[in-house]
Amino acid sequence: LKPRATEPLYRQLARRIESAIRHRAYRAEERLPSVRRLAREQRVSIPTALQAYATLERLGLIVARPKSGFFVRAPATASVPPPTSPPIAARISDLSQTDPLTLIRSDDYDPRRVNLGAAVPSPDRLPGKALGRLLSAAARRLGATGVNYGPLEGVPALRREIARRSLTAGLALQPDRICVTLGATEAVTLALRATCSPGDTVVVESPTFFGLLRQLREMGLKALPIPVDPGTGLDLEALSSALRRTRVSAILVIPNFHNPVGFVMPEASKRELVRIAAAKAIPIIEDDLYADLPHAGPRPKALKAFDREDLVLLCSSFSKSIAPGYRVGYIAGGRWHERIVGLKKANSSGNPPLPSLAIADYLAGGGYDRFLRSFREACRVQVAQMQGALVASFPAGLRLSRPEGGYVLWCELAPSVDSMELFRRAQAEHIAIAPGPTFSSDGRYRNFIRVSCGHPWSDRIEAAVRTLGRLAAAAS
Length: 476
Ligand SMILES: Cc1ncc(COP(=O)(O)O)c(C=O)c1O
What we know:
The chain is built from 14 helices and 16 strands. By secondary structure, it is α/β, with parallel strands linked by helices. The strands form four sheets. The chain has an eight-stranded mixed beta sheet with strand order 4-11-10-9-8-5-6-7, with helices on both faces. It has a four-stranded antiparallel beta sheet with strand order 12-13-16-15. Strands 1-2 form a two-stranded antiparallel ribbon. The longest helix has 27 residues, at about 365-395. The chain is globular, with a radius of gyration of 24 Å. The model has no long low-confidence stretch (mean pLDDT about 90). The structure holds pyridoxal-5'-phosphate (PLP).
């Protein structure tokens, strides 16, 4: 910087930072140096550094976030419309036509592949070391007894911690009415087995997480898809009208940070959904495993918080926030609790105690809350960076979800793009995405993809998104 030049120092500095942003030395949503650090490094006064940032803020290049600092503003995603939710005739499907369900694997760690397909956080974002230490400490504490079966319903320390945390979801779960499970997957399996018999019909959201559809199919259950609104979730009118015509045994929903659409059902809709189900005594299976990941603000209330009849079976896990491989989930099965414990005995005879103890200690020691504070912000940044890159790389016609939590994006492409074909072409370039039809029981969402933002932004991911955009342009 030239102190004697006619251009004031703060403007020279602003131009310098602007150039760094334009040349992508700082990328969308990245934090800029603190005012103090900038002043020290650039040998200017603090007011000059502040004025430089204020200038860039006026230009719309950066934003100030209270108590956090200055950030590079993501390119305009605000003008990109949200995905549509095409009306559908509620038609029961036996799921026999849902071949694409086997496409996406969350255990696929092929180092050459840029995995934007599976909704898993990058392991280097997770507290694996801290949990590993707690796991070893628990193993040392138990000594020779560490190899024993644990209690069928799960270790009491974990059930206590889950009950304590349920206060933040607007509930007061009782530890002895919780059963620890092998991830949310087993929780949902037990819930379905407790409430349905083979051949029964279950209401699902359309679109919904393909793993849930896979479970229905493998259990010989049928799906009745009900559309979702990208902002408010399950279409309650369509649900009421379907329930007048069809007998269903359960309603299976993801009300908080839905996978793949990202919405949170407003509280009034949650209350109304519970009322509709209670009027017909239909159990609701609530899959709540993203709820601890709001990008800002408090955790949204669980659907079960509105449940006066104990008809909601709340299923969740620690897979999406801290430890997918520990396979620790849980179910608060309401009036089906005893039946669920019996099914748990038949299904897996209890969880391994050590991972449960490690997670219980992590929760009790405050590590989980501390971790969540930074992880939520990382998710927000990664989602914003992905939105920016998709907008910059994809051809016209793109529509994008705006999740306020979690790390998946639901993208609608031009109607002419076949996402199954895009999936195959991307695979040949070592890029994984989740094609739209996997999220439906009837082959819908042909021109949709789900993109996972679970990994810290990198040049590799950016290049992969550019390649995807090119493939999508060639396919449309
Ligand atoms: C909505 C939803 N439910 C359940 C699961 C499975 O969770 P878990 O790994 O705890 O079994 C996932 C994983 O992607 C999911 O996204």
